[in-house]
Amino acid sequence: MNEPAAGPEFRNPELPVARRVADLLGRLTQEEKIGLLHQYQAPVERLGLRAFRTGTEALHGVAWHGPATVFPQALGLATTWDPDLVRRVGEAVGDEVTAFHHKDPEAVGLNVWAPVVNPLRDPRWGRNEEGYSEDPWLTGVMGAAYARGLAGDHDVLRTAPTLKHFLAYNNETDRCVSSSNVPPRVLHEYELAPFRPAIESGAAVAVMPSYNLVNGRPAHLSPLIRSWLRRLNEDVLVVSDAYAPGNLVDPQGYHDDLPAAYAHAIRAGLDSFTQDDDDPKATLAHIRTALDRGLLSEADVDAAVRHVLTVRVRLGEFDPGRPYDGITHDVVNSPEHRSLAREAARRSITLLKNDGILPLREPETVAVIGPLADVLFEDWYSGTLPYAVTARAGLAERCATVYCEGVDRVALRVDGGYLSASGDPAGGPLWIGQDRHGFDLLDWGGGAFALRAAANGRHLAVDGDGLVVNDQPGPAGWEVRQTFRIEERPRGVALRNISTGHYVALREGAVRTAEDADAAAVFTIEVIEHGAARAAEVAAGADVAIVVVGDHPLVNGRETEDRTDLRLPGRQEALVRAVHEANPSTVLVVSSGYPYAVTWADEHLPAIVWSAHGGQEYGNALAAVLFGDADPGGRLTQTWYRSAAHLPDLFDYDIIAADATYLYYRGRPLYPFGHGLSYTGFAYRDLSLSHDSLDPGEALTVSVTVTNTGGREGEEVVQFYTHQRNSRVKQPLRRLRAFRKVRLAPGESRTVSATVVVADLAFWDVTRGRFVIEEAAHTLMAGRSAGDIRLTARFHVRGERIPPRDLLGRPLDAAAFDEYDGVVPCEAGAETGDAVRSVQPGAWIAFRDADLGADDAGPASCALAVSSTEGGVITLRAGDPLAGEVIGTVTVPPTPSRHVFVETRARVTPARGSRDLYVVFESEGIAVSTLEFRR
């Protein structure tokens, strides 16, 4: 091919992206195309294409590549309720990614795997810290802001942000084999909604599917990738999560072999395989096999490669130069980024309770106490801290402090002596000796403890040979081999390493682990120093005690591990109580990636402060808020419950039926969504609406006047919620529609306005499979939180009325039910189609207000598409699932597999008028995909 003087079209930045991609695609051989379908993309030297890799972790800083600015966790960023600040943090992280890329382009790619936009449905989720909010709209706002910062506003992308994790991913327990079962309303109104803003606006250009199944089908094979995601943006790149493609065969068992699995994934819309680390050979071989078998076409490969190349073209890889070429490593942890990290940390700090003790008024001495008082932790996706300003360090800059960690120091006695540890800074294997050695016992909750040797300050761990050593700075790594469970035995306790599941034993003349519980060494715990008692002594001599507690981000709540409850770790709770008893002027500071049920503290302590792990500047930010340099600006983006007993099952994704999240929860939370106090007070008045009645295409302007009623400047987050007062379906009790952040001087008043677009009031109508705006009255609420509504007003929307279900108009999708009991959504086919499957006899699905017609005009028969390996019976009833009128009975024949659906028919007894139709499954294991009523 003779090229024009200007070179090939794919290198011409003046041309449209699609034309450049088409030109480059046309130059590639099939083998070269296949080489682009792995995370580590092969170079194409004859065209001057360099190697390219997806996947740089950048959730709240550049991760895994050495020291970089560490900003507050994503949850903390959202707690600022400041999308512009979140965008600026994204910009800073994007610049640092670029700097690392310039330094080592092969190790650090420009496709970043952030942000996480899964709504935080359940605070026990191990990855709670990675998300933004339990509210889908607020999650979408914050996710889009961070993605926009990463991507930049130039035509050429700074980085290529990837939204995680598509879809309905909110549990770590059994995450690769569990199915997140979401009815249509939950799917469209809650789980999909946070992905829309960043994709639709172009802020994010890629998406990563999740490990779990959704309604019975692996997320990596979801038809929604093509039918929903690519309807928003046809060029979106879809990258797999690590090792998820291989899971399609084992453990998910969805396909018999990898060529079939990989072919299905590509057909479903997957473009890039994150599989087998940096060695793509096996993955590419399976794709070639799929092509040879006819499971894939060249057009399928072309479609995937087109998405890959679109991102590379948009990153400016083939341009003469990029707007970001001047970014050097000097930007990493620069003074500007350190200042931004401090600002973000300060504005994320949330005041949960205050009886007037805060801000601190020039105390002579402050006791700084607790296991998190003098340490900062890195989480799995944070960067490496370039420095760490702890709570103790930050407070010490402001006043005289005394410090006590408040943990127990113990000795572990066993027959023959004591567990002993090396004093060498590098540590070494433990042994049994005659001298009593001390170990600090750190309680991280959920039965997880860490042991730190007093001899050298290093944590105990189990090495690869099973030896117990004291050579670790703390819990770390993917496996976290530094934590133990303490199991009671008749004559003492046994130590069980959580990662390996093996017991600390005395074998072969050494302290090493054994798989057999009977081989465990039995220790007697001797307390050398009671941490809570010592902390109480320290607190008693100070003017104020600051107790800093919380979680370790790698223990009892992290990727691969959910929490089981919401309580503070037992020894931390005991510490708080002991310090408060010694000094009533005790402030509790909680640093954690998720909510805690701090009910006792709320009842007894004068002040409680919370933030997510705040990054390198946490201590300075905390001191600024505690001493009143800044008003606490944080507001909760999750409900804080009083107990895990107030939560549904972790695997229950139907927030509507389960009354979950602030949207539907009817109980009294410990702290409501949106909660956060100021050092001043605010009054609300003069709530006004621009319209009393609106059409679907209009927008409502709402305004309210807010006054600072206190004696100091303060910052308020004015929150606007709506509630639909009458509806065919169950509506949220309240739903956030807008918010405004305002800073007011003492006595100052300001009128705050926001817009509520009527189209956003739509909900998913299961009867017709689309969003609908109903004819209804609504309440507009303005206040400080979802639980502190100050003013309300009413307006009316002139929408449509949902008619009775027309049973004769078209086939009825079984998954489009109104209510259900004892069924789960499932897949009707391996690649498309939805169904419901009974999991118990007597299960049912209900279709409300179904038009059964008159005697001479109603349905005479019903054809059901059914599947059941055992066969069974389905009963159609009107009015009630148990005692309602039987209008039809269907015998379900056995079918070869769950994906084979057959048609079976039943005569329908006439039942006049609009009735509630119940499909009752008389036995378990029956699936129905459609019902078609016929005259």
Provide the gyration radius in Å: 30 Å
Helix content: 10-25%
Neighbour order of strands in the largest sheet:
1-2-3-4-6-9
Number of strands: 49
Give the CATH class of the largest domain. Alpha Beta
Average pLDDT taken over every residue: 96
Question: How many separate domains?
Answer: 5
Figure out the total of helices: 19
Supply the helix-strand structural class. alpha+beta
Unreliable stretches covering 5 or more consecutive residues = none
Report on the biggest sheet. 6 strands, mixed
CATH homologous superfamily caption of the largest domain? Glycoside hydrolase, family 3, N-terminal domain
Indicate the proportion of strand residues.
Answer: 25-35%
How far apart the termini lie comes to 65 Å
CATH topology of the largest domain: TIM Barrel
Q: What overall geometry do the principal axes of the alpha carbons give?
A: globular
CATH architecture grouping of the largest domain:
Alpha-Beta Barrel
Family: Belongs to the glycosyl hydrolase 3 family.
Pfam family, one: Glyco_hydro_3_C
Keywords: Hydrolase, Signal
GO biological process, one term: xylan catabolic process
Account of the 3D structure:
The structure is a single chain. This protein is globular. It is built from 19 helices and 49 strands. It is α+β, with helices and mostly antiparallel strands and 935 residues long. The mean pLDDT is 96. β20 (484-489) and β21 (492-497) form a beta hairpin. The chain folds into five domains: 9-314, TIM Barrel; 342-405 and 531-646, 3-Layer(aba) Sandwich (Rossmann fold); 416-521, Trefoil (Acidic Fibroblast Growth Factor, subunit A) (Trefoil); 680-797, Immunoglobulins (Immunoglobulin-like, Sandwich), CATH 2.60.40; 805-934, Sandwich (Jelly Rolls), CATH 2.60.120. Belongs to the glycosyl hydrolase 3 family.
